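Q: Hi! First time doing this. I have a protein sequence and I read that you can turn it into a structure. Is that right? Here it is:
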Amino acid sequence: MTEKQKNLVVRAITGVLFVTIMVVGFLSPTAMVALFAVITALALWEYGGLVNDRVADTQINRFISTVAGVYFFIAVAAWRTGIVDNFVVMVPYVLSIIYLIISELYTRSRSAICNWAYTALGQIYIALPLSLINILAFEMAPDGSGIHYDMLLPLSIFIFLWVNDSGAYTVGSLLGKHQLFPRISPHKSWEGSIGGGLFVLIAAGIIGWIANNGAEPHTLSIPAWIGLGLTVVVFGTWGDLVESLFKRTLGIKDSGNILPGHGGILDRFDSSLMAIPAAVIYLYTITMI
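A: Yes, that's right. Below is the predicted 3D structure, encoded as structure tokens:
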């Protein structure tokens, strides 16, 4: 077996395990919260290491930034599930942010502003988007009887992203001629992106049909599911490009090596960091129309 074949096998095995863990994680609300708390921790820790290693004169507090981001995720989950119902749950997070800002007075860093900026970016770019998965997963039941866990809605975001990636790669390999964003990601093509998007729209229609033909129809209609799929495609693509810009700025190919054949945590969740917030905004928008 050649080295290329070995890498392909490793990549396939890792991909299957990754998808399996993700799907199983959505089967239970407790498992979902635990899974994404771990993902948030790994992503922030990876991000902090990249910043400290690759950005000149910049050293953020990797440990406290990670703990703060994970706490923020858990706090949002506690609020969304009804465990707490007031702002007091956010006080420790606010205090940690204040500490991270004030502490720069005593570090004697040559670039305190960069430390502040990269610390804030980690919370905005990683902790906040991942915490919004709780908004998709938990909502008040239509009859007002309590909090309802919707496994399909957050899981569908990742299904759409996986379908989009696979479709874009396949179509792009066969038909790709026009570069989508050559300055950031020269291997992506318009043909691949459009092809991936069409596959997602089909997948969204199928999910919408299944969700609305069971014993209890889903709150989203089939057209609304298709709109969600389109939203995920557009913002997921931007999410991929944003992380590519981040890596290009740091001069690295992968964000890490925790996932053999697939890179780091940020490499696997880059698209979702834009797709999840966009999906939340989309769902709130259609409910207001």
